[in-house]
Amino acid sequence: MSGKVVHLTKPCKIKVKNSNLVLFFYEDEQEVKVTLKDIDFILFDNTQFSITGKSLELIAKNNIATLFIDAEFHPSSILTPFHSHSTLSEIAHIQIAITQKFKDVMWQGIVKSKIINQAEVLRFFNRDRHIELQELCEKVQLYDTNADEAQAARLYWRELFNMHTFVREQGSDDIINSMLNYSYAILRASIARNVVVSGLLPVFGIWHKNRYNAFNLVDDLIEPFRPFCDLYVKLLLNTKYIKANNLSVNIKRDLVNILLLECVNINGGKSTIAKAMELFVKEYKKCVVSNNPRSICYPMIDLKYMQDEFI
User: Fold this and answer.
1) Are 179 and 45 within one domain?
2) Interval 100-120: pLDDT, tens
3) CATH number of the structural domain spanning residue 282
4) Buried residues in 161-185 as b, exposed as e (16+ CB within 10 A)
């Protein structure tokens, strides 16, 4: 994933012409052609658009991650292609047969990766208690049986925003939670796209197993990447949007651009968040197929990149 991010904020009509998307913006009476093969992510950031069935078909066939926003400007749904992977049945049976031992080791690794990235975020902002998170990371048990992820979260959120009253809530509409929820939704849609393209069934999770959630695996694999959003949101609030109290178009546009930040160290190289998520999903699939949960490489925040870009 290394192409364009299309962020649609104005009312428009979307159709297909010569296998490309044509966007007609009503306000400007302007028509824009977008080559499908150049798009990796589309964000429909308003409900005042019309789109043809053929457009939706081609978006799915080209494996484009797509996120829709509702009337309250909250992320509401994602579009993922129906599975057409050549080994879908084989992979599905492998996923179904995943052992609890595999899940124990894999979830331990995911939680440790998340906590160490949270510690790096606190270290970036010179919060001394990052040391406590590093120590807590070393104590994480198989399948996180001691709930160290939750313990880390309580310390982390209080220290990150330096507010004893801050509560991390998915449904809250304060500016911090709104920006976090928006950026998480962007990452979730992108990971969902990579999971489906890889041939994995997103319903079969590692720790998440809600019977009503079709994206349990996505909600597992996103965890190491959440601190990247936290750091980015904090930096935006500290620099560009100090007095912001609602999600403006400019804030949303900046949040979408998180996918293009080259701030991830993974598998011996440096990568954008979008590319790192693609690689992480592929690595997870290899672990599943080989039944070796310890072979995966986890993403780490490149603090120098963030320092150079924002400070």
Assistant:
1) no
2) 999 999 999 999 999 999 999
3) 1.20.120.920
4) beeeeeebeeeeeebbbbbbbbbbb
